[in-house]
Amino acid sequence: MCTDYQGNTVIAEQFKAAFRRYPTGVAVISAIGPYGPVGLTASSVASVSVDPPALSFSAMGTRSALALLEAESFVVNLLGPASADVARHFASSGGPRFTEEQGWTFLPTGEPALRHALASLRATPLHRLPVGDSTVVVASVHEVFLGPAGGRLVYHDRQFVEAQGESH
């Protein structure tokens, strides 16, 4: 069992291995930072409440994450298989970001949104909770933009994978 989380590299490696085995949905969270648009790929997005609408995600201390955590509002773009390349580019530094070819547009409120996302949710932070090297954000959802339906993109074993199978 995991009983010691401070400095125990064995448990840390086992923890990472456990979550590599667990497939999750994929999102790109985008905002306007002090020097322009910023974004990051997240596999930690979860619904928190329907009434009022709220979601959560966690962000680690990258430059993009720090700018996003300071933003007054952001967009959580829930991705389908058509956005796998966008997810890859936003998961690492140096790749193309916010290009017209990727399908970005800007909402009237200023945040970047991905046109072909399954859904884009404009939100504002309610709580920011530092936990280790990450920050958990709980956010209030103000607008939902539904994009084209179809397909599933999951993050599993360090890869973005189009999920197959029937819905039940």
From TrEMBL:
It comes from the Bacteria. One of its GO terms (biological process) is pyrimidine nucleobase catabolic process. Residues 19-162 form the Flavin reductase like domain. InterPro entries: Flavin_Rdtase-like_dom, NADH-dep_flavin_reductase, Split_barrel_FMN-bd. Keywords: Oxidoreductase. GO terms for molecular function: FMN binding; riboflavin reductase (NADPH) activity. The keyword Chloroplast does not apply. PANTHER family: FLAVIN REDUCTASE, FMN REDUCTASE (NADH) RUTF. This is NADH-FMN oxidoreductase RutF, flavin reductase (DIM6/NTAB) family. It comes from Paractinoplanes atraurantiacus.
